[in-house]
Automatic annotation (TrEMBL):
Biased composition (Basic and acidic residues): 86-102
Span list, region Disordered: 83-102
Species, as recorded: Geobacillus thermodenitrificans
Protein's name in the database: Uncharacterized protein
Protein backbone atom coordinates (compact mmCIF):
# COMPACT_ATOMS: atom_id res chain seq x y z
CA UNK A 1 0.00 0.00 0.00
CA UNK A 2 1.24 3.47 -0.87
CA UNK A 3 0.58 6.38 1.50
CA UNK A 4 0.39 10.00 0.36
CA UNK A 5 1.36 12.76 2.80
CA UNK A 6 -1.50 15.27 2.58
CA UNK A 7 -0.12 17.62 5.25
CA UNK A 8 2.87 17.81 7.57
CA UNK A 9 2.66 19.83 10.78
CA UNK A 10 5.84 21.12 12.42
CA UNK A 11 6.73 22.73 15.73
CA UNK A 12 8.49 26.09 15.91
CA UNK A 13 11.86 24.31 16.01
CA UNK A 14 11.10 22.40 12.78
CA UNK A 15 10.30 18.99 14.27
CA UNK A 16 7.42 17.05 12.74
CA UNK A 17 4.51 16.98 15.20
CA UNK A 18 1.80 15.41 13.04
CA UNK A 19 1.10 13.95 9.62
CA UNK A 20 -2.11 13.72 7.63
CA UNK A 21 -1.86 10.63 5.42
CA UNK A 22 -4.12 9.06 2.82
CA UNK A 23 -3.87 5.67 1.16
CA UNK A 24 -3.45 5.84 -2.58
CA UNK A 25 -6.68 3.89 -3.11
CA UNK A 26 -8.66 6.33 -0.91
CA UNK A 27 -9.89 3.59 1.41
CA UNK A 28 -8.02 4.91 4.49
CA UNK A 29 -6.63 8.12 5.87
CA UNK A 30 -4.82 8.75 9.13
CA UNK A 31 -3.98 11.69 11.35
CA UNK A 32 -0.79 10.66 13.17
CA UNK A 33 0.77 12.58 16.06
CA UNK A 34 4.39 12.67 17.19
CA UNK A 35 3.59 10.52 20.25
CA UNK A 36 2.23 7.61 18.18
CA UNK A 37 -1.43 8.34 18.82
CA UNK A 38 -3.62 8.46 15.74
CA UNK A 39 -7.06 8.48 14.21
CA UNK A 40 -7.58 6.10 11.32
CA UNK A 41 -10.59 6.83 9.10
CA UNK A 42 -12.14 4.16 6.89
CA UNK A 43 -14.10 5.04 3.77
CA UNK A 44 -16.40 3.27 1.35
CA UNK A 45 -15.02 4.00 -2.10
CA UNK A 46 -17.49 3.97 -4.99
CA UNK A 47 -17.56 5.25 -8.55
CA UNK A 48 -19.26 8.41 -7.25
CA UNK A 49 -16.57 9.14 -4.69
CA UNK A 50 -15.79 8.12 -1.14
CA UNK A 51 -17.95 8.20 1.95
CA UNK A 52 -16.68 8.19 5.55
CA UNK A 53 -17.52 4.89 7.22
CA UNK A 54 -15.74 4.62 10.59
CA UNK A 55 -12.92 5.89 12.80
CA UNK A 56 -10.43 4.04 14.99
CA UNK A 57 -8.39 5.87 17.62
CA UNK A 58 -5.28 4.25 19.05
CA UNK A 59 -1.99 5.03 20.71
CA UNK A 60 -0.82 1.44 20.14
CA UNK A 61 -0.88 0.76 16.40
CA UNK A 62 1.14 -2.44 16.73
CA UNK A 63 -1.27 -3.73 19.39
CA UNK A 64 -4.25 -2.95 17.12
CA UNK A 65 -2.57 -4.76 14.23
CA UNK A 66 -1.93 -7.82 16.43
CA UNK A 67 -5.57 -7.86 17.58
CA UNK A 68 -6.82 -7.60 13.99
CA UNK A 69 -4.46 -10.39 12.88
CA UNK A 70 -5.77 -12.54 15.73
CA UNK A 71 -9.36 -11.79 14.66
CA UNK A 72 -8.50 -12.66 11.06
CA UNK A 73 -6.93 -15.98 12.12
CA UNK A 74 -10.00 -16.90 14.19
CA UNK A 75 -12.37 -16.03 11.36
CA UNK A 76 -10.31 -17.98 8.85
CA UNK A 77 -10.49 -21.05 11.09
CA UNK A 78 -14.30 -20.82 11.17
CA UNK A 79 -14.82 -20.03 7.50
CA UNK A 80 -11.83 -21.65 5.77
CA UNK A 81 -14.03 -24.09 3.87
CA UNK A 82 -15.97 -21.26 2.22
CA UNK A 83 -14.46 -20.27 -1.12
CA UNK A 84 -15.50 -16.63 -0.85
CA UNK A 85 -14.10 -15.93 2.66
CA UNK A 86 -12.25 -12.65 2.67
CA UNK A 87 -13.92 -11.15 -0.38
CA UNK A 88 -15.24 -7.66 0.31
CA UNK A 89 -18.90 -7.70 -0.63
CA UNK A 90 -19.86 -4.84 1.67
CA UNK A 91 -21.85 -5.12 4.85
CA UNK A 92 -25.48 -6.03 4.60
CA UNK A 93 -26.24 -6.36 8.31
CA UNK A 94 -26.04 -2.65 9.21
CA UNK A 95 -23.36 -3.50 11.77
CA UNK A 96 -25.33 -6.23 13.53
CA UNK A 97 -23.30 -9.22 14.63
CA UNK A 98 -23.82 -12.40 16.58
CA UNK A 99 -21.58 -12.88 19.61
CA UNK A 100 -20.00 -16.22 20.38
CA UNK A 101 -18.48 -17.51 23.61
CA UNK A 102 -14.73 -17.09 23.89
Amino acid sequence: MVWVIKAKHESEDGKTTALELESEDGWLDANVRWDGCMEIHLYSVTEEGREWSDTFRTCDLQGLIEQLQSLDALCQSFFESQDNWGEDKGRTDDGAADLIDR
